[in-house]
Queue: 4 jobs
Job 1
Amino acid sequence: MTARSEIHDRLAASLRDARRARGLSLDGVAKLSGVSRSMVSQIERGESSPTVATLWNLTQALQVDFAGLLEGKPRPGIEVIRAEAAPVIAGRGTGVTIRILSAPEAVGDHEVYELIFVPGSALESDPHSPGCREHLAVIEGHLRIESGDLVEDLGPGDTARYAADRTHAIRAGAGSARAILIVQDS
């Protein structure tokens, strides 16, 4: 066996094991990573050599590092994602920075985010799946919650739980604000 085929075999097995350990389907990994389902399958079978960009996307989705993939074993102990390593969705014209705190396998089930608002910014959302609820805890500043026709104002330490299966929004007033948002699908 050549060194190249050993690496492919180890990489394929590690990716497959990491995916299964997180309870993800091929479709789930594809959704989280942006790598097509067929490409993930080919890599897991050792039929394709992934690019560095593809490996990066897969390792981020599976929350493993390159060395971890080649080791082929999950690391025991406490899993820590350092602040600078957490995925961030920057503003996109909304003025709201979203830092993803939940594990990739929680997508569509139980998601946790840190939200950072600049003054006057808003996070407006279309309805999520039926029965979906959001839980928002304000850490700093003041925010206004809108869920359908209902409106509530929140300050530091306040928590709101509301239906997210209708049009909803979180708006900052004249000051900046920071909050933790939990999206819980039914």
Job 2
Amino acid sequence: MGLTKKEKLYSASVGFVLGAIYVVVGILESTNSTASIGVLFIPFYGAFGAVLSLAAYYAIKTNWLTRIALVLVSAVLGFGFYEKSENLKSASDANTPASYLADLAQAKMLFGREEVLEAIAQNPNVTPELLLILSKKEFTSVRMKVAENPAAPAELLNQIAQQGFNHDLHSALARNPKLPSNIIDKLLTATAQDFPGHTEFKLYQTFVWGPLARHANLTDAQFTKLTQFENPEYFLIYGIIESGRASCELLKTYRDGDNGALKNNAASKMSEQGCEK
């Protein structure tokens, strides 16, 4: 039995709305600072929900075997999403014991394994031993969460630093408030020749060196090195200006530069530091 145009429209609309609600609820429940980017997935999940809704409505009007298959598929999907939600809650809960986190990291999951591992890597009860295990997972995002965890031992951070000049992993290191100075030295040895193209080198300057310019463990010698790179990117200069370490003379060079935004930032910092105009 076919569906009328009105039935198709109504069932697809219901599915789209449910898909959109799923994304919005996920964003509201997430503790990730970039969760709002998930809004971009509303069309995708909405379309997926619309197709499922159409299939479900069509199945209801057909034979009983199709209905049974639909129930089974729905049950599996429902269980998978419920399991993901519960696992995320446990992985994010500061009261979850380390032993359970270790078991959860090894557990089989239908959905959301990457997100659950990210949450485990950020949990205050995660052990150095478990962080080491997580650092070897296939997900870059999980390894990044390990790299920025203040509880990660220096040996593990050093291992991550040695895995090539990757701006994703090294930007996570730069965000770690307990990053040792000797590892900062390693990150400052990058040159344009270490990257497949100039764009990648620019990204490294932006996401690694920019934050490092304001790192509490940065030595004066390391700061000076950051100020001496040729053709520095915008956010590297911004990090230097906002670091509170830049001399009046250095700030003046940025104030007199060509970039309007940086000129204003440098002028404001000169005023804060009482530099002569």
Job 3
Amino acid sequence: MLGLRTLGVSGSPRQGGNTDDAVMEALAVAHQAGCRVEFQRLTDYRIKHCAGCRGCMSAGRCGIRDDEFEAAFEPWRQAEVIILGSPVYWLSPSGVLKDFMDRTHGWYRDGGIFRHKKAILISVATEGGFGPHDECITVWLKHYGAEVLSVTHVLACDRGDFNSRPEEIEKVRRAVAESLGAIR
């Protein structure tokens, strides 16, 4: 496990919110386990919506070239472990994460862009809606070849909730430690 390139991704539009905090906690555990860690906020990149042009189906990659999707996607290519955090928005991922996911459609037929990658999902919600949210993300990850090691549900709403709830912090720590332990 020593030296695994581990990317922690926050799919939340709220900088410094509970999803960011949970992903940062997960990265701290990964770093303590000897992983090389990097943090990414998808909202730090200008990622356009999928245009529905279907040009990607013949090109094998997204045809939109005038945004920062490719720059955002590059760390995903390099990572061996992806810790993906997303708030639950109406039973699904946040818009910024869904836009990112949609933009990978050009690789749909290949299905292997995440081959040999391990994934850890951290879902953050006030009280529920985890099922459809988790399914949307895990089906996407698995279609592209990732092995989803764990899915953790964090209960948090207002800014600072995650960091003030030791039981939620412990859930994330335990899930990451156990998931990384399974890689050995």
Job 4
Amino acid sequence: MNEMKLKAVDRRTFIIGAGASAAALAGLSSLAQATPQEAADFLAKLTGGKTPAPGKVKLEMPEIAENGATVPVKVTAETPQNEGDNCKSIAIIATKNPRPRMCVFHFTPRSGKATAAIRVRLATTQEVWAVAEMSDGSWHIAKTTVKVTIGGCGG
């Protein structure tokens, strides 16, 4: 039978180890959150450098999310979705999530209506953007800020 030998750890060694672990986790957590600049860079890459105009896309989210792990999102492009005038895609971008690109919905003129709904995870209170590409090559944007609380306590 294999015997396990436990080695006693003195208080000083424990505190040094715990401090080093905390420092490592703090360093990793800063890597896990994107910046608004990274979101802007992704937006520029997505649109080919074009500046999206406000309007033609609607973004619906709660102002306060009591649980950041499951936040409802609904996006709608205000177009007739026919061969001459339609929304090709809508991207959802979060400005402080680990990766700015949350999802992209693609539509065709036969989609009927350019509407989609999803639940997303938000890392912290942040601005969320819905960016729509139209068939005429134009881009449109809607923005909203969602306050993420912990248990509804206003964090």
